[in-house]
Amino acid sequence: ANWRLVGGLRREETRLEAVPVRLVGVNPRDGRINQRDWLPALGVVFASTPKTNWRAAFGRTVARPTYKELSDIRYEDVFTLDTYVGNPDLRLTRIDNYDLRWESFPRRGEAVAVSAFLKRMTDPIEVVFRPQVGSTQPQNVERGRVFGVEFEFRRGLEAFSPALAAFTFGANLALIGSRVTIPAAEMASIRLQDAAARDERELLGQSPYTFNADLSWQGRTSGTSATVSFNVVGERLSLVQFGSIPDVYEQPAPSLNLVVAQRLWRGLRLRFAARNLLDPEHRRTIGLADRDLNYERHRSGRTFSLSVSYLFE
């Protein structure tokens, strides 16, 4: 058994300026962020056996608003027809990350791992619809947190049957909780309708679960390989509606993909990919007491591609 300790301290300097073009009769505000941050990181690894590790880590990071979010301009999304207004008062989000992980590598190319994680956020950014002005706008909320567990598995299938020696299966499941503080002005509006309402909600865009799985086949002598992959994420908050108006949620839309590759000659490779084979309907809904109303829905369509590449070895 042995221990390893890794640490560091990084300084980041952020200079963001969003200066809109000023037209006659329009006087937007400039968005500016000028900030220095010290970002520590510390990791500990304990190797309990040659094939098993325990890991603990802490790290601080920052998340920056995009120029679109920071710019005091109004525009319309061509797909959803939503009107969007930037916010020049946005601040950086500070994130403290805590991770604990157990991992084992039974054989080459195989792994089993269990992780727990916690993220504490100061000034997280979310997008809220304000009915009084008829537009959506990003805002900082006071604080937030994301926490959960993750399970990972990858193994060759030869152990089940010699006929499956060319196959490898992998899967990943994360169960996640999240909370952010609702701003005081919005909370006052909510409690006009529900005096017992909680002062927290889930983090914008954070699903309560994610699941990924893939099955790969590798020809030992033919130079052919194929992978089928599946992915789905749980219902997640897509748009915050100010006050007591029901929020908008994005519904699960599972994805199934196929990739086949063939080595032709030396470094020459042919690759075929088929994406989004299930082509599910992507829906955003508003949840009412007795039913869900469609806020927006579409299908992305299936895509197929064929490519040739050469790898210099």
How are the secondary structure elements laid out?
Layout: E1 2-18, E2 31-49, E3 52-63, H1 67-70, E4 74-76, E5 83-85, E6 93-104, E7 111-122, E8 125-130, E9 135-140, E10 143-156, E11 167-181, H2 184-193, E12 200-201, E13 209-218, E14 224-233, E15 236-241, E16 248-250, E17 255-265, E18 268-275, E19 281-287, E20 292-299, E21 303-310
Parallel strand pairs: 8-15
Antiparallel strand pairs: 1-2, 2-3, 3-6, 4-5, 6-7, 7-10, 8-9, 10-11, 11-12, 11-13, 13-14, 14-17, 15-16, 16-19, 17-18, 18-21, 19-20
Description:
4% of the residues lie in helices and 61% in strands. The protein has 313 residues and is mainly beta. The relative contact order is 0.09.
Give the domain tally: 1
Unreliable parts: none
What is the overall silhouette? Answer: globular
**What is the count of DSSP helices, taking H or I runs of 4+ residues?**
2
CATH architecture classification name? Beta Barrel
In CATH, the homologous superfamily goes by the name TonB-dependent receptor, beta-barrel domain
- Text of the CATH class: Mainly Beta
CATH fold category name: Maltoporin, Chain A
Mean pLDDT: 91
Please summarize the sheet with the most strands.
Answer: 13 strands, antiparallel
Distance between the termini: 38 Å
> Using only CA atoms, what is the Rg?
24 Å
